[in-house]
Amino acid sequence: MGGRGSGGHNKLSDAEKKRRGTFRADNSEAVYAERQAAKIVVGPWLSEIPEPEYTLNAVGRKKYDELTGELLKQSKLTKISVTRASLVALLHQKFDHLAASGKYPSAHDVAKFQSALRELDIAQHAQVTAPGGAKNKFADCGFSNSRASPFRLRTPGKTRA
């Protein structure tokens, strides 16, 4: 089973098939190349980080570079995501300015920031992990009422008199 010329790894060239008289146009190398080309995903993704759409200071630019760098790494950088990343960076810059003057951002700005950050879809499938070796904060809360525990809050089968 298998062997040379069986169509697996050792495929014959079109010239060899024509020489043998077994050439079929629907199984030619050109058809295989077209099938492979159809599997390539073409989209509006950018291959490098463009300039932000808004004028940003150092704080906003740092956030913009952080977000767009992560989007580029995940192959999600498009013109639309650049616009959203610019908006998030602008709002982050505004929050930093307000915090420096001792003020809080409005709830509307916070909602816009969270919405735009969510739409960037950067860490959508990230797993939540606890820090290694962290103590369970409920370990010392009291006695366990599980069947495996040596202590019981009530003994089964006895009722109060």
UniProtKB/TrEMBL annotation:
Residues 1-28, 142-161 are annotated as: Disordered. This is Uncharacterized protein. It comes from Mesorhizobium plurifarium. The lineage of its organism: Bacteria, Pseudomonadati, Pseudomonadota, Alphaproteobacteria, Hyphomicrobiales.
